[in-house]
Design goal:
The protein is of the alpha/beta class. It has a domain at about 230-329: Helicase, Ruva Protein, domain 3 (Orthogonal Bundle), CATH 1.10.8. The chain contains 14 helices and eleven strands. The chain has helices at about 10-30, 35-50, 65-75, 90-95, 125-130, 130-140, 175, 190-200, 215-225, 235-250, 260-275, 280-295, 300-305, 310-320, and strands spanning about 55, 80, 95-100, 105-110, 115-120, 140-145, 145-150, 155-160, 180-185, 250-255, 300. The strands form four sheets. It has a five-stranded parallel β-sheet with strand order 2-5-8-1-9. It has a two-stranded antiparallel sheet with strand order 3-4. Helix 10 crosses helix 11 and helix 11 crosses helix 12. This is ATPase.
């Protein structure tokens, strides 16, 4: 699939090759991140869908390890930014520097000029620095001193954040949350895998054991091809009905926009191909609706006070909206 272009519709053979690639990437990443294959697969779906990933969890659950493992398996250049309260926007995007040797002013690229950028603990920085990522995440460009600079392609931001109730954290604004294609959490491993992690000699956390499986060119070509994978009209109507139901829920102040629903469709294409299919089924929508739509949903104050969460609202909507029947899809 390395020679595919955006105008090429994936064939059956292409789907088989992508499934193998997806499996190989997951196996490589799982060598360092044990017992979290479902989350790994979700991150890879977002990667090939051309989006960015937000990982939220308490410290010590493997967020940074997962992000670094993904970067290593995908190949290309990767950078890490540790967000702190005193981090400046120019520390992220880059800045113009005067060179006294020839009197010229030159642009010095920041760490966002890489194929995979790890934004570690993004919600520990002030809002002004958080917003510095907005343009580059959406437009894949950085504007400094009136000049626009393009970041490498493909471009993936994997951001980690701690829960907002921890000390020293700042809530991400809705505009920035919407730039993330997927938001998910790792959680603690189950008993079997946690014991495996604790066992002396375990490979858990060993980034050096993660081998490169793909190249940036390959990722870009596959991503462009999968964007043309067929999605039937009944599935599209099903996605819209879910979006409308979330927006109209009395517990919701702001639901997912049309851009959010398009993001869900994009993920559905990759998810179906990763399972060896050239078509999307309703079960795919059930799997991806929560990680794609929940963080784009803003609840009312009363809903929050009564214990409702964004994920629970989306889950309840999925139970109420009837999926299309096989003869329709």
């Amino acid at each position: 699939m390395t020679t595919l272009t955006s105008a090429t519709t994936p064939t059956e053979r292409d789907i088989v090759e992508f499934r193998r690639l997806h499996q190989a990437l997951g196996d490589s990443i799982e060598s360092a991140v044990h017992g979290k294959r479902a989350i790994i697969d979700l991150v890879l779906v977002a990667t090939f869908a051309g989006g960015h990933v937000l990982l939220e969890d308490v410290p010590g659950t493997g967020k940074t390890t997962l992000a670094r493992s993904v970067a290593r398996a995908l190949g290309g250049e990767h950078r890490r930014v540790q967000f702190t309260p005193d981090l400046l926007p120019s520390d992220v995007t880059g800045t113009s520097v005067f060179d006294p040797r020839d009197g010229e002013v030159r642009f010095r690229p920041g760490p966002v000029f890489a194929n995979v950028v790890l934004a570690d603990e993004i919600n520990r920085a002030a809002a002004k620095t958080q917003s510095a990522l907005l343009e580059v995440m959406e437009e894949h460009t950085v504007t400094v001193g009136g000049e626009t600079h393009e970041v490498p392609a493909p471009f993936l931001v994997i951001a980690t954040q701690n829960p907002v109730d921890l000390d020293g954290t700042y809530r991400l604004p809705e505009a920035q949350l919407d730039r993330f294609l997927v938001k998910t959490s790792l959680g603690y491993p189950d008993a079997e895998h946690e014991i495996e992690v604790l066992r002396p000699g375990s490979t858990a956390g060993r980034i050096d054991d993660v081998h490169q499986v793909a190249t940036p060119h390959q990722v870009a070509a596959v991503s462009a091809s999968l964007a043309t994978l067929h999605v039937a009209d009944p599935i599209l109507r099903y996605v819209r009905e879910i979006g409308v139901a979330v927006r109209n829920d009395e517990r919701v102040r702001l639901g997912a926009s049309t851009r959010g629903l398009r993001a869900l469709v994009r993920c559905l294409q990759v998810y179906a191909a990763a399972r060896g299919r050239h078509y999307v089924i309703p079960a795919d929508v059930h799997r991806l609706a929560e990680p794609v739509l929940a963080h784009r949903t803003v609840l009312t104050r009363d809903a929050v006070l009564t214990g409702h969460t964004q994920s629970s609202v989306v889950a309840e909507v999925l139970e109420t909206v009837a999926p299309p029947q096989p003869d329709q899809a």
